[in-house]
Known about the structure:
The complex is a heterodimer.
Chain A: H1 12-15, E1 26-28, H2 30-41, E2 45-49, H3 58-64, E3 69-71, H4 76-88, E4 92-98, H5 99-105, H6 107-115, E5 122-126, H7 143-147, E6 154-156, H8 161-173, E7 178-181, E8 186-188, E9 204-207, E10 212-216, H9 220-233, E11 238-242, E12 245-247, H10 251-258, E13 263-271, H11 276-286, E14 293-298, H12 308-314, H13 319-331
Parallel strand pairs in A: 2-3, 2-4, 4-5, 5-7, 6-7, 10-11, 10-13, 13-14
Antiparallel strand pairs in A: 1-8, 6-12, 9-11
Helix pairs in contact in A: 2-3, 2-8, 4-6, 9-13
Chain B: H1 13-41, E1 43-44, H2 46-63, E2 78-81, H3 87-97, H4 137-150, E3 157-162, H5 169-180, E4 186-192, E5 195-196, E6 199-200, H6 201-204, H7 210-216, E7 220-225, H8 229-241, E8 247-252, H9 260-263, E9 271-272, H10 277-290
Parallel strand pairs in B: 2-3, 3-4, 4-8, 7-8
Antiparallel strand pairs in B: 1-9, 5-6
Helix pairs in contact in B: 1-2, 1-3, 1-10, 2-3, 2-8, 4-5
Amino acid sequence: MTSTAPRKKLTTSAMIASFADPGQRTTSAPFGHALNRLAEERPEIVGLSADLAKYTDMHVFRDAHPDRFFQMGMAEQTLLGAAAGMAEVGLVPFASTYSVFATRRAYDFLCLDIAEPNLNVNVVGGLPGLTTGYGPSHQATEDLAILRGCPNLTIVDPCDSVDIEQAVPALAAAPGPTYLRLLRGAVPTVLDEYDYRFELGKAAELRTGRDVVLISTGLMTMRALQAAARLESDSVDVAVLHVPTIKPLDTEAILRAARTDRLVVTLENHTVVGGLAESVASTLAFAGAGTRVVPIALPDEFLAAGALPTLHDRYGLSTDAVVARVKAELGGGRHAPWAADPEPATV
Amino acid sequence: MTSPSTPQTTAGTDDRAERIERIRQAAYRIRRNALDMGEVQGQGYIGQALGVADVLAVVYTDQLRYRPEDPHWPDRDRFLLSIGHYAIALYAALAEAGTIPLEDLETYGSDDSRLPMSAMASYTPGVEISGGSLGHGLPVATGMALGLRHLGNPARVFNLLSDGELDEGSTWEAAMSCAHHGLDNVTAIVDVNALQADGPTAGVLRTEPVTDKWQAFGWHAVRVDGNDVAALVEAFDEVREHRGSPSVVICDTRIGSGVPLLEDREKAHFMRVDEHEWQIARTQLEEGLAR
C-alpha cells in the first residue's frame, strides 16, 4: 500500500460562493450594480425579492433605492404574482429568488400572471444549473426545460459580468417578460477581451475555427473559450458561438455555424433534456440538416452535493472535461460513457 | 362618465332607502343577465352567479370608481376576479355597469366570443386579470396595491375570492404580505357559499373559522349576509374608512339566491338547468323583485 500526502479536501460551503477559477478576474455583484445604473435612468424600475435579496445581489439595489425595493418574504408565489400586479400599474419590476423556486415552486404564477398577459416583469433566478453544491433542492438543473415551453417568455443565460451588465437594460427595454439566469457574487469577467456586445436574441461568434465549433450558453461559454485555447496548443482549431439568449433562439446563427463538416458540440450548464443541446438539435432537424450534435450538459439525474469544482469535473462541465471530450470525439476511439450521453440509439 | 361615488355621509333615511333600492334593482338586472347567459350554455356556474349578485351590485354600482367607456383609466379602482369561473357573474355586472354591451351576453362561452367561460383580461373590457387557476388574485392585488401606493395613486384594489380558494396557500402568502405592508387600499371579498367542486367546503377542506383566520393574519375583517344589500352597504362603507391594514368583507351567500327553483335544488358546483326552467327562473326572479 502506498501512502500519499493527505489531500486538502474541498468542502461544499467553501465552494458555493463562486465558480470563478483561482486568480480569475471578477466583478462584484454585476447584476445589482447594473440595476442601480438602470434605476437612475428609469424611475419605473423597482426590485422585489423573496427573502433572498442578499443572495441574489439585489441587496445592492435595496441599499441604494430602499423606497423602490419590496421585500416579499419567503413567499415565491406572491413574489411573482405581486410583480405582475406592479407591472399592471406601470412599474417595471425585477423579481429575484433562486431559480429552483422561480421555476418549480412558482411556475403557475410566472406562467399565468406574468407571461400570459405578456407583462414586462423580469424574473431573476439565482443558482441556475449546477452553481451550488447544496444538492437537488438548490440546483436548478432543469429550469430552461421548464421555461422554454412558456409562450411570450424571453430567456437569457449570461456568460459573465459583461453579459449581465449589458443584459439588464436590454431585459427592461424588452416589452414582455424575461427570465435571467443570474450569476452572483464575484462573477468572472471574460467577454471584455472579445469584440462583443450583448444583443437580445442574438448569438455571437467569439472565435473562428476550422475543426470544431462549440455552441455554448451561460457560464459554459467561459469554459468553451478556455477549452478552445487549450486545444489550439494541440493544433485543434476551435470556433466558439456564444448563445446568451435561449429564447427566442438565434436559429440563423446556429444553422450557419452547424451546417458544416466541423465537429459540432453544445455546452450548457443544464440537464441534457430540454436545454441548449435539444434546442440546437431541433433547429438542425427542423431545417433538414443532418449534422450530429455532441451534447456537453448535465446528466438526466438528480446531482450530488459537494464542492463545485469536484462536481463540475464529475459531470463533465470543467474545462478539463470539455477538452477531453472534444479530443475523444475527434479521435473517434472508444471511450467510457459520458455523464450526459443519451441512451445509445438502436436502428 | 364616472360611476356615482358613494356618499361619504348618508344624508338621511330616505336617501339610504333610495340607495338600497337602487342597488337592489341593479342586483335584479345582474341576476337576469346571468340567467340569460346561463341559458346560452344550458348549464354552468349559475348558482354562484346568483349567489354573488348582490355583492357585485354593491361593488359595481355603489363602491367602485371606474369609467365604463375607458376601462384602462389609470385612476380606476381595480376589481380582480380571482375566481375565473365566476366569469358569468362578472360579465353580468359589467353589462349592468355599461363596460360591455348587453348584446354581448348572448355570445357567452361561444366560439370567438369576448366572454369566455373563464374570465381572461385579454378577452374582455373591464376584466383586470386572467383568473381560473385559483389563488392568484390576492398575490396580484398585493402588487397592484403596492405599486399604486408607490406611484401616489389613491385607487383601491378589490379582490373577489371564494371560500374554496382559501385552500390555496398562495392566498395566505398574500394575506400575510398585504398586512405586513399595511395595504389599506386592498379590500378582499370572500364569497362563502360553503360549496366547492367536490362538495361542501366543510367536508372538502375546512376553512372555518374564516373571520378569525383573517384577523389572525392582521386584517380588518367584517362578516355579513352577502344577500342582504343593506348589510353589504354598511360593511363596504365601514371598510372604506378603515386605515392602517387591509380589509376583508366575508360574505355568506346562498347558491341560487333570488330564484327559489335553484336555491332549493341539490347544491351543485356546476349546475344543470333544463330548457323549460330558464323562463320559470326569470319569472321567479321578477316575483322576488316585486316583493
